[in-house]
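INFO batch 0412 | record 1 of 1 | parsing
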Amino acid sequence: FHAVSHNLNKIFHMLPNGALWLPPWEIMAVGFFMLNFIYIKFLIIWRVASASAGLDLVVTTDNMNRCVCNNYSFAGFWRSWHGSLHVWIVRYMYVPLGGKTRRLLVVWPIFVFVGLWHDLEIRWVAWALLNCVCLCIEGVFLMGVRKSVSLARYRTASWWRYLSIFASVANIYCLMLSNLAILYGFNGSWEFVTAFVDAPPPATRAEIVTCNLVAFWWLACGVTLMYDIREREQSEGKLKRF
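INFO prediction complete | emitting tokens
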């Protein structure tokens, strides 16, 4: 599974047209479960290391504060992923570069640095830039909604929650795409999207629409559960920024 998903873009180009065809829902499943595989891989590595340190009475930072499937925002996701690295970046890069007052600018050099720190490959640059673009769009959008006086009176309306769920699902799509760039780079990520949005024959238009509607409904159910988890945490006094 890891070998196929990691080299999916290469496989598509190595074989003649039509030699390998996957229905849209399988393409989406490969992307989703690949991200979960990466999460589980690092979770095991970091938890084993943390347990080993605990035997020597060394308290370590929890690198996985929340499950990868329990995130719907870029800011929240990166606060909970690799907690120790996040603390280091905030202390030695984010704050010295300007912190909150310039956060939409400082994320660019930070993400590019982290990407190239992982590996000197263009796919990591693609990952960094896609995350920066989406993070900035999310930040500007949320800032506009929070400061808008005209929208303030609608936040208690029953339909506001459903609108928030819709926006969160769209954000999850972007979150998945930007992180799959680690595997596929710029071109491969775009081809990955077209594989389930505008899949070539023998996929039918009805199959593509049905696949995307089911995926949207499934993610919307997940976001509803995420909202409930955060509301319960807030009622219990657990103030988390992710």
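INFO post-check: The CA atoms of residues 172 and 195 lie 18 Å apart.
INFO record closed
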